[in-house]
Each structure stands twice: as structure tokens, then as C-alpha cells.
Amino acid sequence: MEILKTIPLAALLSACALTASQAEEHRQLGAHVHGHGKLNIALEKNVLSIELEAPGADIVGFEHEAATEEDKAKLEKAKDRLEKGLELFTPPAAAGCKQSLVAVNLKAEHEEEGGEEHEKHEHDKHADAKDDDHDHEGGEHHHSEFHVEYSFQCSAPDKITSLTFGYFKHFPNAQELDVSVITPKGQSSYEVTKDKPKLELKGV
Q1: Segments forming the whole domain that contains residue 168
Q2: Is 191 part of a structural domain of the chain?
Q3: 173: how many CB neighbours lie within 10 A of its CB?
Q4: Residues above pLDDT 90, as percent of the chain
Q5: What's the structural domain count of the chain?
Q6: pTM, two decimal places
Q7: In sequence order, what DSSP letters do the residues of 3-33 get, joined into one string?
Q8: Which pLDDT tens digit goes with each residue over 154-168?
Q9: What is the DSSP string of 77-101?
Q10: Is the Cβ–Cβ distance between 42 and 11 less than 8 Å?
Q11: For 56-79, what is each residue's pLDDT tens digit?
């Protein structure tokens, strides 16, 4: 499967999915609440694009550096699962969607208490997170976040009337996703939860 750095509509998703106030909150909080992720969906002609942002704790169960063999194995297993977009976000079979592109990235953030020092590191698909959950002795807070981009070619895009979220089954620490959907008809916002893992898109 081809791996690449960007996919079509990524800029559109970033520009449209956040309002100015949401963008400011994103900068201040890092959009980082455990159990809570974001999903941007865009449909243009026969191309379905999906962008996922999720805390590291939701995906692998921890945010510290994957130093042990057990943690490294968990990280690689999670990345393998994230690559299988149609198992995580499944449109109806009648839509004839096939995954064409995927990009999995892990971002780590280190922040000193008091906000005096703030560093962000972006890692490629095969890098480990360079941070711990909380280093109390050093007075640092550490966060990691997965950013995943998918592109699907759909032979019958008008049949994309719903999405079933296997995401919550594969990543049980995840509780909910804020979803933004962008189509030629406009933009809509939804919340999909672990208890109701299906998004209805009829009329969207």
C-alpha cells in the first residue's frame, strides 16, 4: 500500500473543520482530552477523504516513550490497525470504496509547567513517541497524538449513506469522536460515541 505525506483535501479539511474559536482552543489545549478524538470527512466526486486525530492514550493506552519491548509491540500493532481504514470507518458495501492512500503520523508534545518551555516533535510512521505521560519530578507534562489521513476511491459515492465505526472496537480506550463532514452540499457536525458507533449520512 502506498504511503505518502499528504492526501487530496487535507488542506480543505484543516481549513473548514475548525472555526476560529475552535482553532484557538486547539492551540491552547492541543485538542487533547483522553477518550476524545476528532474525525474530518470530505467527499469530492468519487474520493472519500478521512482525517483522524486521537490522543496516544486512546490508541496504545499510554503516552510515554515506547521503551520496553511490550510497549513497542503495542505501538506497532496499533499502527498496523490504523492503516486498515475500512475496518475502522466502514461505508456500505454498495458504495464500492477501496482504500487508496494512508499516512500515519505520531506527534509528541513536551511542555514545562508554567508554560516557559514548549516543544513539539513530529515523527514519521515508524517513529516512537519521545515522551512520558507525566514526569512529576521534572515538572513536565507529556502528550502524544496520532494523526492519520486516509483516501478512498468509491465507485458509487452516492451510496455512502452511513459509516460504521469499528474504531471503538479496535481501540477500546476511545470513547467518542467529534465528526465534521464536508460535501458539495455543505458542512455538518456530529458526535459519534462508543455506545452508538454509527454515523447516518443520508441527505448529507
Answers
A1: 10-200
A2: yes
A3: 17
A4: 54
A5: 1
A6: 0.72
A7: B-S--TTHHHHHHHH--HHHHHHHHHHTT-B
A8: 999 999 999 999 999
A9: HHHHHHH-HHHHEE--GGG-EEEEE
A10: no
A11: 999 998 776 667 788 789 889 999
